[in-house]
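Reading a protein record of the kind used here takes little practice once its layout is understood. The reader may check this reading against the record printed directly beneath this paragraph.
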Amino acid sequence: MSALQAMYKQVIMEHSRKPRNAGELPGATHTGEGHNPSCGDGLRLQLQLEGDTIRDVHATATGCAISVASASLMTVALRGRTVAQARETAQAFTQMIRTGEADAALGDLMALQGVHTLHTRVKCATLPWQTLDVLLSSPTDTQP
């Protein structure tokens, strides 16, 4: 295992064991849930939008390490970004997961680049991002 692969593995394990920005988000403007029935992953995603800016984002994920780490890394990457920037990041991340081609601008999200070789785990890594897409496409709070 290369030093870079070892570092990426460490990032994934750190975010899966101690997810960032988990739990309820007071003042959330958008709330939604995502599920991956093929492996049991679940996600509750909350956004606090102020105009076109994501002021805060929380994700409470359950399931495999890849799904939990992806949600945690996403919350860190998107806080303070505009909706347009979030969409660009989501598109670049999804492309990386599907093809293995990574944009250096993804930063720590590149830790999940190797998932593209694990076809059964692609849905795990993309679940938070698909849920984000639904929330960003919703004009109002989508809380269940």
Remarks:
- The chain has a mean pLDDT of 94.
